[in-house]
Specification:
single chain, 420 residues, alpha/beta, Aminopeptidase, Alpha-Beta Plaits, 9-stranded mixed β-sheet, 12 helices, 35% helix, elongated, binds (2S)-amino(hydroxy)ethanoic acid, binds manganese (II) ion, Bact_exopeptidase_dim_dom, EC 3.5.1.87
Length: 420
């Protein structure tokens, strides 16, 4: 079987070019970071740049009504379901150059490599990017792919708002990506996402790529605590309704739960911690925190959420504070298709690339698309312990090329699979 040869320099150049869109100087690290929140002007500019690369590769592109973009390279039998590659190009506010971007630009590089080699495939091959994968702006992660998979209704997605009250729908219209086409139909033959691992597993195993077995469960909740403002100097300790105290206790309790081992490999993060008016001499009357829980076992996730709710209710009652919970996102453990995993493993072996199989600690669009077609992911090794969601995020040109080689050659195999 001929190997599809990708062009590492062309791939790297596109990654470094896209990194400039939404670039900012990060005080903490002194590095250039990427801030490309979904549907902002920076995201719109990056979208247009990717669409231009797609058009340059001779692809037919379309935009659906939640702003997902897909571009197609025609196969010889267009009646057959396509093979889809993709990821996201929106980032967190302290983002790096590779999270999501690698899977989109790697897919475009695969298309160029197929063109360079003059290869005809039986099936259409598609590459795309999904809207608001990070969930940082509109509060729900994997938004575009969840609409594609039917887990989130389009109308619900459209009305989600950002901190300024702007809706997804109005922002899609503002940047001109409120596409006419319906969300993806019919389902693809298969979906493969190439993505940086964002953790230490591949580096610890000293291998260039990973074959992803699935994604752990994710729970996002917003907790708002209402206490009572009062004078910092005159109010006796025993008669305070201190929302800030309850909020801070929740952070400490979450760490205790993780360290206890009672919830397996639970990971908890309070990424947003806001104490109302923030006045030195006033007891906080209000506190808001977001709670991100991850667990590779659904039952343990359920138990963690339940015990946390009990802890908060008890403590809030004790301090005369009321607690208000809002569900932002919740996804179960998602296993990936074993045949697609095995194809990726066989492809890595054929290319002489060492690999390990691993569960993903991070959420990905693939976990949504897995609901509509056989899906798996190939991980790319990260440097510095695989740190991510920071400008320190870094994978070498070779690692990016290795992952894209696995992606491209696996997609080529799938694209020539006849109808069952
Ligand atoms: O939150 C996640 O795991 C992903 O980066 N959206
Ligand atoms: Mn990502
Ligand atoms: Mn991310
Ligand atoms: Mn005073």
């Amino acid at each position: 079987m001929t190997e599809l040869t990708i062009n590492p320099d062309r791939l790297w150049d596109s990654l470094m070019e896209l990194k400039q869109i939404g670039a900012y100087h990060d005080e903490g690290t002194g590095l250039q970071g990427v801030r490309r929140l979904a549907l902002t002007d920076a995201d719109a500019e990056a979208r247009r740049r990717c669409v231009q690369w797609m058009l340059d590769a001779g692809l037919e592109f379309r935009v659906d009504r939640i702003g997902n973009v897909t571009a197609t390279r025609a196969g010889t039998d267009r009646s057959l379901p396509c093979v889809l590659m993709g990821s996201h190009i929106d980032t967190v506010a302290t983002g790096g150059a590779f999270d999501g971007t690698l899977g989109v630009l790697g897919g475009i590089e695969v298309m160029r490599a197929l063109n360079d080699a003059g290869i005809e495939t039986l099936r259409d091959v598609e590459v795309g990017f999904f809207t608001e994968e990070e969930g940082v702006r509109f509060g729900t992660d994997m938004l575009g792919s969840a609409v594609t998979a039917g887990r989130i209704p389009l109308q619900h997605a459209w009305q989600l708002t950002d901190i300024d009250g702007l809706t997804v729908k109005s922002e899609l219209e503002r940047i001109g990506f409120d596409g006419p086409t319906p969300e993806r139909r019919p389902a693809p033959h298969a979906y493969i996402e190439c993505h940086i691992e964002q953790g230490p597993i591949l580096a610890d195993a000293d291998v260039p790529v990973g074959i992803v077995e699935g994604v752990q469960s994710i729970s996002w909740q917003r907790l708002t605590l209402h206490g009572e403002a009062a004078h910092a100097g005159t109010t006796p300790i025993g008669s305070r309704h201190d929302a800030g105290l309850v909020a801070a206790s929740v952070v400490v309790e979450l760490r205790r739960m993780c360290d206890s081992g009672d919830y397996g490999q639970l990971r908890a993060t309070v990424g947003t911690f806001d104490i109302g008016a923030g006045q030195t001499n006033v007891i906080p009357h209000r506190a808001m925190l977001t709670i991100d829980l991850r667990n590779p076992v659904d039952d343990l996730m359920t138990r963690a959420e339940k015990d946390l709710a009990t802890y908060v209710d008890t403590l809030a009652h004790q301090h005369g504070v009321s607690a208000e919970w809002e569900r932002m996102a919740k996804t179960a453990v998602i296993p990936f298709d074993s045949r697609v995993q095995d194809l990726l493993a066989d492809t890595a072996e054929r290319l002489g690339l060492g690999y390990v199989r691993a569960m993903s600690g991070a959420g990905h669009d693939a976990q949504e698309i897995a609901a509509i077609c056989p899906t798996a992911m190939v991980f790319v090794r990260g440097e510095y312990g695989g740190i991510s969601h920071t400008p320190r995020e870094y994978s070498t040109p070779q690692a990016c090329a290795d992952g894209t080689r696995v992606l491209g050659n696996a997609v080529l195999t799938l694209a020539n699979q006849p109808a069952a």
